[in-house]
Amino acid sequence: MALNIYFCGSIRGGREDVAIYQKIVQKLKKFGKVLTEHVSHAGLSERGEDAACEGDRAIHDRDVEWLQKADVIVAEVTQPSLGVGYELGRAAAMHKRILCLFRPSSGRVLSAMIRGAENGSLFQVRDYSEEQAETIVEDYFRMVVSST
Q1: Quick one: 52 exposed, middle or buried, by C-beta within 10 A (0-12, 13-18, 19+)?
Q2: Which of 15, 71, 74, 103 could anchor a disulfide with 78, C-beta 3.0 to 4.6 Å?
Q3: How much is the average pLDDT of 109-123?
Q4: pLDDT tens digits for 70-95?
């Protein structure tokens, strides 16, 4: 069963983790269509897609449409991002399956609003090291596929 997958990662909040986003998105593609594959593109700067789109409203509306279409949301939440937080709030309100990935080795502390939303079923938060990212995604999607 091919899933529609919405990947969240920081764009305007900082692009420091783009190499990790690339690894995660490559693994996600094994399980379905990644609607937001562009988030992992190295050429996408902190300015985002301004030149390629019709502005912020168009990006917002397109992304909300993709969130509605998505079967699963996967978010790398180590780099703080207002946009990712907003996407997660919208997805949670839509009762979507959500997996958040956080690297404690970054020295950051994950927002209580993300960590505290974890409920063991629809909204899951997994701490990981960079080496574990692909395995965690693989294990999560095995569980998702077996429960659908």
Answers
A1: exposed
A2: 103
A3: 95
A4: 999 999 999 999 999 999 999 999 99
Tracing tokens 């429960």 back to the chain, one arrives at 147
Distance CA 10, CA 31 (A): 22
pLDDT score recorded for residue 107: 95
Instruction: Write out pLDDT tens, residues 17-27.
Output: 999 999 999 99
Measured distance CA(102)–CA(120) in Å, rounded: 16
Contact yes or no for 119/98 (Cβ under 8 A): no
Cβ(69)–Cβ(36) below 8 Å:
no
Per-residue DSSP letter, 123: E
Say which residues have a Cβ less than 8 Å from residue 88's Cβ, sequence separation at least 6: 8, 73, 75, 77, 98, 100, 114, 117
| Residue 104: how many other CB atoms lie within 10 Å | 12
Q: What angle do CA 16, 17, 19 make, to 5 degrees?
A: 115
